[in-house]
Amino acid sequence: MKANIHPDFTETKFTCSCGAEFIAGSTIKDQDFRVEICSNCHPFYTGQQKLVDSTGRVEKFREKMERAKKAQEKAEKNVELVDEKKKTKTVKKAKK
Ligand SMILES: [Zn+2]
Is residue 92 predicted with pLDDT exceeding 70? Predict the structure, then answer.
């Protein structure tokens, strides 16, 4: 290791907003560092859906997906109807 270019690697106490504390090595100069989420409270680890969604973005996204799904279903129905019309037309033509 080259001298005088590496930051100090020390033990830092991390405190999560859920209350959990853990010590990990880091180059952060503060001895105490606050984090918003950790493996004790992250939904990936807890398996529970918990969202901090103050602006309603998630709700808007769900609404958008619902509308897109309905539009797609409608479009698929229309395609089926057009196909049936084509079939009846071709059948009629074939009879002539
Ligand atoms: Zn946490």
Answer: no
